[in-house]
Amino acid sequence: MFKDIEHLVRLAIVMALAILLFIILRAVAVPKSFGQYGHYRGAAITEIASRPVALAGRQVCEGCHTDVAAQKKLGSHVVLSCEACHGAQAKHADDPANVTPPKLDTAVVCARCHEANSAKPKAFPQVVTADHSGGIVCDTCHQPHKPNIENTPAESAQTNTSKKKEAKP
Amino acid sequence: MKITRRHLLLLLPAAAVAWKYVEAGTPEAAPNYKLTDHWWGMLIDIPKCIGCGSCVRACSEENGVPDGYFRTWIERYHVADWKIERPDVESPDGGKQGFPPGEIGDGKNFFVPKLCNHCADSPCTQVCPVGATFVTPDGVVLVDKEYCLGCRYCVQACPYGCRFIHPKTNTAEKCTLCYHRITKGLTTACCEVCPTGARQLADLKNPKDPIHEFLRSHTVQVLKPHMATGAKVFYNGMDGSVR
Amino acid sequence: MQIPVEGFMYPNEVELQWSVLIVLYPFITGLVAGAFILASLERVFRVEAVKPTYRLALLTALSFLLVAPLPLQLHLGHPERSYEMYFSPHRSSAMAMFGFVYLWYLMAVLLLEIWLDYRRDIIQKSKTSTGLLRFVYRILTLGSDNISERSLKIDERVGYFITLIGIPSAFLLHGYVGFIFGSVKANPWWSSPLMPIVFIFSAMVSGIATVMLLYMLSSRLRGKPIDIRCLDKIAQYLLYTFIIDFSFEMLDLLQRIYEADESFRSLDFMVHTRLWTSQVIIQILLGTVTPIALLGLTQTLKLTDTVRKRIYAISGCLTIVGIFAMRWNVVIGGQLFSKSFLGYTTYKMGFATREGLLTAIILMLLPFAILWILVKLLPPWLDAESFPASGATPAHGTG
Question: Which of A30, A89, B174, C202 has most Cβ atoms within 10 angstroms of its Cβ?
Fold first, then answer.
């Protein structure tokens, strides 16, 4: 009787061995921290959290550049993070002598925030550069760290976009 | 050849040894930061966004985001009067260099920053076949790039389009809520540089976080609430036309 | 490579995620399921007429099933990590669970059924062949050479049982693929409870058509006469299955059009423009309506054998093209529109790239190469003299 099902028994053994092999390989291959917090490699959390920081943060900048910090306090850009314009500077903060941030082109940098756009909140200071300055670069008149210009006629320093727009056909 | 008792005597101990390895391995040493103390989200104040793109640039630098892909981006909406179901939307290079000057038409215009919503009931983690993307105990959806197969199922499953495949690592990638920063007490890169405070990191488990008062006193929405993803990025002042 | 975009798409959506290889994958697994269902018609439902195609259908299913993982592997960003799906499957992921459905179907259903059905022939060949071939056959015997009447009867019983389990397994195999798409709530083109049903029935249609064509082709190549009764029966089953499949697809379409939810306008525009040729012309008109009409003719009119054979051949080819187009329209179509419902992108298919057209063509030809080898190794023909005469004749398969 057994002889007639022997081939099936052999098959069952082959399958059992395959399953055993699977279990052994699995034990070897699945990373140790898998399942620590959930269905994932727990070590991944540590790995991701240990990425080096690229933005130093304004406190770090102001730690050395105290003069700029003081200047900013006098104007509207006090709220602005240094790296919003200067880009990520953690590398510079770590090695100020050898890593220096490039000089910025104010025509590009300032326009991103302050070029007039109908989607920007109305109360936000914005100008049509062509009308406002005739195309000369912003830092000709404005000091970026203290951008407000005191004692100037309302026309040039505080050009109101909506006023200008009304004049156009 | 018949199976004998001798065969079994060899197989059983081998199986027992193997089983010991099958049980979960030793846990990693826990970092100083306590995972269970936090439940991260973000607040985006749409009336404050000026579409300057500082967030997109900062994120790109902080996280080494490849060109043409975006962990965060800004959309500019133009809604012509009552045509709420048909807004005009654009996002030139994700808003990375800001937006070109826009003409005023009839209707309203505004910017909407977008990012991964770090969903509490995240559909992307649900579909990942291997557990390479997951929700951490502190509420951040992350991708384990050492484990990801690059099958792209998660990219398909995300209703918000915030995922992509990194062209160099061939693994899934997306906003990590600057996990490497927030676990050190810093804020995210995008929130750090936002000039108007339109983006603010929120720790929903911290009773002192201003998000709680804000949520109670403002009208907020999440994106695609009908998807029931448990999104944790809250938008103040979001128009009904926002997709 | 600039991808042309119309309207607005979320910036990360512009590039398609799933390529033609992912179109190929459901197409191939569909053929497997369909071929198997045809085989089980004979085994379980005792449809005597299709007996000549029983073994051929099984071998066809196996050839395609062996190739099925290849498009997936070529598509993965890290194919070397694909073992993770078996060692740490995420139980909430349809894709992960499908790995086990595939494995189950391959090991416990298809291979087992083929082995049991061919066992007598394998043992005979292990005794009569020489060289490497003899070695191969000896391995396949698993060391047992018992072909007594009783053992063969036991094989028959076990084989029947396996086919019985095999039918729902085949449905599960391809229904699962449908579920992988149908369960993605983020994508309204995919998200539908009908998706697994439509996939199953279109799989059956493509599988039946493939076996039918292979039977006709192999008979022609071998210079043997075609069993017209067998062919008529297969064509009949093809027609019935096709009508059911078409009904489900039309139901999905009509419901969508009627309900017109937020995605409808965008999807409708996409079908009318980017998917017009592949969906309306190729899938629906040429690939579904025409074969159904032609097959319907053979059932209603009295036509000569020759004319019927011609119609079957044409219908079979159109069917396969149509079902491929259906997979294309689901997979590629589902990625052409933006989830903002405000824009569309374009699929740029490479040629000689890892996921390009050439790769797809090679992958489609590979199963036929494997089938050729299998047919040489385990001849499926009823009329063959390739097996030495023996005493006992099993209930089906060889003659």
Answer: C202
**What is the pTM (predicted TM-score) of this model?**
0.89
- Mind listing the domains of chain B with CATH numbers? 35-65+116-236 (3.30.70.20)
- The alpha-carbon radius of gyration of chain C (Å, integer) is 22
Rounded Cα–Cα distance for residues B197 and B208 (Å): 18
Q: pLDDT tens, C316-330?
A: 999 999 999 999 999
What's the CA angle centered on B163, arms B161 and B166, to 5 degrees?
140
Chain B touched by A31 (CB under 8 Å): yes
The two structure tokens encoding residue B231: 């999104």
Residue A65 tokens, joined? 């550049």
Residues of A in contact with C144 (CB under 8 A): 6-7, 10
Whether B100 and B86 have beta carbons less than 8 Å apart is answered as no
Instruction: Choose from C151, C156, C157, C161 for mutation: most chain A CBs within 10 A.
Output: C151
pLDDT tens digits, A116-156? 999 999 999 999 998 998 889 999 999 999 998 875 544 44
C77·B147 Cβ contact <8 A: no
Beta bridge partners of B113: B74
User: CA-to-CA distance for C140 and C68, rounded, in angstroms?
Assistant: 23
pLDDT value, residue B3: 61
Tens-digit pLDDT profile for residues C357-387: 999 999 999 999 999 999 999 999 876 544 4
Which chain B residues are Cβ-neighbours of C262 within 8 angstroms?
85
Structural domain boundaries in chain A: 2-49, 53-101, 103-169
> To which H or E segment does residue A107 belong?
helix A106-114
Question: Is residue A87 within 8 Å of A101, Cβ to Cβ?
Answer: yes
**Domain assignments of chain C as residue spans, ordered by start:** 19-377
CA B186/CA C131 separation, integer angstroms: 71
Asked if C327 and C205 touch (Cβ cutoff 8 Å), the reply is no
CB atoms within 10 A of CB B217: 8
> In degrees rounded to 5, what are phi and psi of residue B38?
-130, 155
B135 by DSSP, 3-state: which? Answer: strand
**β-strands B40-45, B233-236 pairing:** parallel
Among candidates B29, B32, B210, B37, which has minimal Cα distance to B138?
Answer: B37
C271 CA: distance to closest CA in chain B (Å) = 19
